[in-house]
Amino acid sequence: MIKTVKGTTDILAPEVLLWQRVEGVLASTAKAYGYEELRTPTIEVQELFSVSVGQTTDIVEREMYSFPDKKGRHLVLRPEGTAPACRAYVEHQLNVQPSPSKFFYMGSFFRYEQPQSGRKREFHSFGVEAIGEQSHLQDAEVIDLVFTMLSRLGLTGLSVDVNSIGDASCRPQYKELLQASLKTHEDKLCDDCKRRLMENPLRVLDCKREDPQLLASLPKSVDFLCDECRTHHALLLSALDSLHIPYRQNSRLVRGLDYYTKTVFEVLSEDLGAQSALLGGGRYDYLVRQLGGPQTPAVGWGLGMERLIAIVAAHSPDLAASLPPLRIYVVHSDTATTAAFELRRRLVESGVAVDIDVRSDSFGKQLARASRRGARYAIIIGDDESSRGTVTVKDLSTGTQETLESDGLAEYLDGRSR
Ligand SMILES: [Zn+2]
Ligand SMILES: [Zn+2]
User: Fold this and answer.
1) pLDDT tier at 417 (50, 70, 90 boundaries)?
2) Neighbours of ion ligand 2 (CB under 5 A)
3) Fewer CB in a 10 Å sphere around the end CB: N or C, the chain?
4) 332 and 311, same structural domain?
């Protein structure tokens, strides 16, 4: 038997109905906030991620699915969505269009990690990116947007952890300070952090293996921000206050990727238990320029769909159970096949969902299959019905049936669909 590749999954009904439902809520909310869908390719050149995500990050160091194509080009299966969105922004010169460009995306992403529950090698993300606006209100908007989405999905107890990690004018000094402070504790750090110490000391702050007391004693980036970054951060916090979005200043929050500047944040929900963020994002004001575009500020977030779906399934049973309400099953005799197919075409065009039995056996067997498939009504077209232009509708829950003109069928079913 040939099986799925390790770390990948098939999504079958009824679970896939929940996926469609959740994706629908996320996409329609993003559109209602003025975000347009962006679809980028699944494969990109490797350089896109080493330049943007950062050479010393876990993703680029060991998690990318990279391979040479037949001409020897270095390609990767995309590990995240922000760098491709910025690549598209630069490639299509969207900077000449009215600013900001606001995108949402959803799809498959790939990271070669040890598969565990909720962490697949092929996983699905939904994200938004607002490119071209530096105002703190843009940061507030992307956070407000995800709060609206998650409340529409029935999640409760939402809050956001925020931090500012500064920009090119204040982060270098902070980095040096942090490095100096970390060096005095070097012997206590894990092997990864000993290595990060020189290249990427901020990453030490979110290492799960370090002593929390040691981490709490280190200098905090918010205390070393330049005027611009400090103002931006203060204004964002006051905007969150006015919008009644509960937040906590978390100085250990740095996010795993190199491209972030100023604001970084994670959204938490009581439905998940403590310490566990549902999604993360932040500002990335230099990424477009790093990818060859003009200096362009931007902010966004991305969330893992597998995790969100599991939470919604556990906490919003109403949403999870919402299958299509009415299923109609057409049962027909051999001579009425064409009439049956034509009838379905008309019903589907008028918005009714219809399945049809394509096995030529007795009405009894067809009706039994209709019940097994969970159909509410069977529409029976035998020789008599097809010659008279009528159909017999059998309510499979009560066993009652009546014969009516096939032209009036859509209206008849419409009145009984709830
Ligand atoms: Zn560590
Ligand atoms: Zn700054």
Assistant:
1) low
2) 166-167, 169-170, 226, 229
3) N
4) no
